[in-house]
Design a protein that fits this description.
Immunoglobulin-like; 3-stranded mixed beta sheet; 105 residues; 4-stranded mixed beta sheet; 11% helix; binds copper (II) ion; mainly beta
């Protein structure tokens, strides 16, 4: 009993989002199926390629940059929101593909 209470306090202090959600975003017809999304730190975004060709995922945003690489139809890549900020997510193969993720504390 005491231990579980302590865990809750420690997680609260560390700012851990203990109710993390997972969001699904498709890549279809050279577009993201979701253009704008608001998530919280700790939430996970999963991207699924629904096109019969490769897509890539990367972000050069100041608060969090990442490159999930390139992957073919049916494959998925995920990223967890690390810090509050605004992420612009792009595809290196199709420069017009872009979406925005607002990460809240
Ligand atoms: Cu693409």
């Amino acid at each position: 009993m005491k231990i579980s209470l302590m865990l809750v306090v420690v997680m609260g202090l560390a700012g851990v989002n203990s109710f993390a959600q997972e969001y699904e975003i498709g890549q279809k017809n050279k577009e993201f199926t979701v253009k704008e999304l608001t998530v919280r730190v700790g939430d996970k975004m999963t991207f699924t390629n629904q096109d019969p060709f490769f897509h890539n995922i990367y972000s050069l945003s100041e608060s969090q940059s990442f490159d999930l690489g390139s992957y073919p139809k049916g494959n998925q890549r995920s990223v967890v929101a690390e810090k509050p900020g605004t992420l612009t997510v792009e595809c290196a193969i199709h420069p017009n593909m872009q979406m925005t993720i607002h990460v809240e504390e």
